[in-house]
Amino acid sequence: MKVNQLIKLLPINFFFITRFLVLVIFCLLLTCLFIIQSSSAEPVKITLMMQALEATQWEPFVKEFNDQHSDIELEVIEGPNATNQVEDLYTSSFLLGNSPYDLVFMDIVWVSKFAAAGWLRSLSDRLSKVDLAAFLEGDINGGMYQGELYRIPIRSDGGILYYRSDLLEKNGYQPPNTFTELINISHILQEKKLAEWGYLWTGKQYEGLSAMFMEVLSGYGAFWINPYTLEVGLDSTTAIEAVNFLRSTLDKKISPMGVTTYAEEEVRRLFQTGNAVFMRNWPYAFGLLSDHSSPIKGKFKIKPMVHANNYFSGSCLGGWGLGITKNSQHPDAAWEVIKFFSSEEVQRRFVLATGYVPSRRSLFNDSDILTKFSYYPQLLNVIENSILRPPIPQYAQASDILQRYLSAAITNQLRPEVAMEKAAAETRYLLGKQKSNND
Ligand code: GLC
Fold first, then answer.
1. Which domain of life does the protein's organism represent (predicted)?
2. Could you give phi then psi for residue 40, rounded to 5 degrees?
3. Is residue 270 over pLDDT 80?
């Protein structure tokens, strides 16, 4: 090419080169802008509410999650300690619309209602069959509604009987298996002035009353509601016997009248003073009763609940898990939270710190957990044989009916037969209405 031809082409090339350079600089600027923007982007906020006591216990883990996830900020709002009050708060937030919650920290008994109302996202596609098999079967089943999974269990729970092993051993008694043995041992130790009270149970009008009563019902071979047929068993002879048992503990002064206003913590605190022989509670109490400041540290043991002759003991399956709300704008970030809290490692450390019950089977045989809580294999046995409160969408209303009439019966406002007849009739009406709506 001749020089003059080259000179002729130069301005065009120059034009292209300049355009190319401008384009490169522009792209570089855009990239820088994107990097600056994404590094200073606000993390996605994920909100949930849980009972105040538990929120404090989860605090270090929430901090750990936030430290590990610069793109997510988990905020835990403290709610009341009673499960039905927390449920009411979640329910009103969904009914009013614009609920601030991405996650629901959910009692096992809320699942059907929340799922049926359309407030939760299905989590069925998030875990494989193998992942699910690592959890306790009852906890997974309790998270299902109409074949879909809505709740991943974070911790399990089951009602157990605490007894003062020191008092029983010194006085030559085996731990009781039946209601009658429990009453007799209580009575004798009270007579000997070794304990002021025989048996402590949660008799306040709230969800804990229904959970505890399920166990007494089952111990007498009675039932509350059959979830498949919606048959109601509250007015059967055996169900009335179950109410009579609770009433007799008060009439015989085996239990203080105060239990009719006590929830878990009131019962646990009284047992911890050393003034009672037996207590029905959840496993969370074990850790607190074993605290170095506890007067009964090392002086108590646990066993499955008592039952009537020829029947079996029933432990009510409780437990808590996480579900993602329908209205959450960030379901994937919410899922990260679930993965973290349900992971084996986090559960392991949470159990070691608090004595709560894991929802993963492997942890019941974890060597560190066994060194600290040697009773875990026994607990696994109790929980694997526990009974679920009726998993029906109207559970909250059914439980409310039972609580009202049972409370009236144990506080002597209604005779047990009358109370249970009324409870059964109202429950049938509730379920009957639902049945005809579905027809
Ligand atoms: C415990 C159980 C829960 C139950 C509640 C009743 O928290 O885990 O399932 O509903 O006690 O008070």
1. Bacteria
2. -105, 10
3. yes
pTM, entire model: 0.87
Residue nearest to atom 12 of ligand 1 (CA): 208
Last residue of a domain, one of 362, 387, 412: 387
Q: Atom 6, ligand 1: which residue's CA is nearest?
A: 208
* Ligand 1 atom nearest to 206, measured from its CA: 12
Question: Which residues form the domain of 229?
Answer: 160-316+390-438
For residue 3, tell me if it sits in a domain.
no
Q: Is residue 173 part of a domain?
A: yes
pLDDT at 38 over 60: no
Based on the domain organization, do 429 and 281 belong to the same domain? yes
319 CB less than 6 Å from ligand 1? yes
- Residues facing residue 75 across a β-bridge: 47
Q: Residue 130 contacts by C-beta under 8 Å, 6 or more apart in sequence?
A: none
**82 belongs to a structural domain:** yes
- Check pocket membership of 159 for ligand 1, CB cut-off 6 A: no
CA torsion 421-423-425-431 (nearest 10°) is: -150
Residue nearest to atom 1 of ligand 1 (CA): 318
Whether residue 402 has pLDDT greater than 60? yes
Q: Give me the mean pLDDT over the 172-176 stretch.
A: 98
pLDDT tens, position by position, 188-204: 999 999 999 999 999 99
Q: Residues 147, 225: one domain?
A: no
**Total domain count for the chain?**
2
208 in ligand 1 pocket by Cβ < 6 Å? yes
Considering only CA atoms, which residue is closest to atom 2 of ligand 1? 318
Q: Is 111 in the pocket of ligand 1 (CB under 6 A)?
A: no
Tell me: pLDDT of 23 over 80.
no
**Closest approach atom of ligand 1 to CA 264:** 12
CA 431 to chain centre: 25
Residue-level pLDDT at 437: 39
Please, which pLDDT band fits residue 438 given cuts at 50, 70 and 90?
very low
Rounded Cα–Cα distance for residues 106 and 240 (Å): 31
Confidence label for 41 from pLDDT (cuts 50, 70 and 90): confident
The reply to whether 307 and 323 lie within a common domain is no
With CA atoms as reference, report the closest residue to 357 among 262, 265, 298, 287.
287
211 lines ligand 1 (CB under 6 A): yes
Ligand 1 probe mutation, 139, 207, 280, 316, most atoms within 8 A of CB = 207
